[in-house]
Design brief:
- By secondary structure, the chain is an alpha+beta fold.
- The protein has one domain: 3-Layer(aba) Sandwich (Glutaredoxin), CATH 3.40.30.10.
- Helix 1 links the parallel strand 1 and strand 2.
- The protein is globular.
């Protein structure tokens, strides 16, 4: 029996579209029995390296009432479709470096998914500033992590290096944002709205009918 296709997801909890994709990808993975290899990154590092135009484009959208209204509607429609609550946080963009180093630490404790779900919900659903250590400590306690150990990991050079390595790897492999998914290492998909294509390709590799 062949092993399942390799499915990787490079992600940062500071992105609302990644919040949606993170929740949609889990049932997709379970349905096809293809595990997700979650790869925490710092999306700001990706933007600074290869997508600096994003900053001007985002500012232009927020200064254009017509585009902003549709952006907000689109995000609300997707949130309703996914059964999630998404608000625009007071602190945006947010420095998610500690939260994403925390994801790596949580992964070492086999709690990456609960940690990431809680960070997403705290930021996008509850308007909490996930750059603040006390917020991260509270989230850690809520998912069964030791808050002191979690906070220590967020400033530990080893976790800084691992997060940078993931970020640099995504850039080297052609990525330019979050979420970015790869199938079999070099077949890249970007964005929440590409998940139907991800599912279709996995079904092909698994030799499953399209309505599986």
């Amino acid at each position: 029996m062949h092993p399942p296709p390799l499915l990787e997801c490079f992600y940062d909890c500071s992105s609302p579209w990644t919040y949606l994709a993170f929740h949609r990808l889990q049932p997709l993975s379970a349905r096809l029995d293809v595990p997700v290899h979650w790869r925490p990154i710092l999306v700001g590092g990706v933007f600074n390296a290869v997508n600096q135009d994003l900053y001007a484009a985002r500012e232009g959208m927020f200064n254009n009432p017509r585009r902003l209204r549709h952006y907000q509607k689109d995000l609300a429609d997707w949130a309703e479709f996914c059964g999630l609550r998404i608000n625009h946080p007071d602190v945006f963009p947010v420095n998610s470096a500690r939260a994403m180093r925390g994801a790596l630490y949580a992964g070492d404790q086999d709690l990456l998914v609960p940690w990431s779900e809680a960070v997403f919900a705290a930021y996008w659903g509850e308007n909490r500033d996930i750059s603040r250590p006390e917020v991260l400590a509270d989230i850690a306690a809520g998912v069964g992590l030791n808050p002191d150990a979690l906070l220590a990991a967020t400033t530990d050079q080893a976790y800084k290096d691992r997060l940078r390595a993931n970020t640099d790897e995504l850039v080297a492999r052609g990525g330019y944002g979050s979420p970015t998914l790869f199938i079999q290492r070099d077949d890249m998909y970007f964005g929440n709205d590409r998940l139907p294509l991800v599912e279709y390709r996995l079904q092909q590799l698994l030799d499953l009918p399209a309505d599986q």
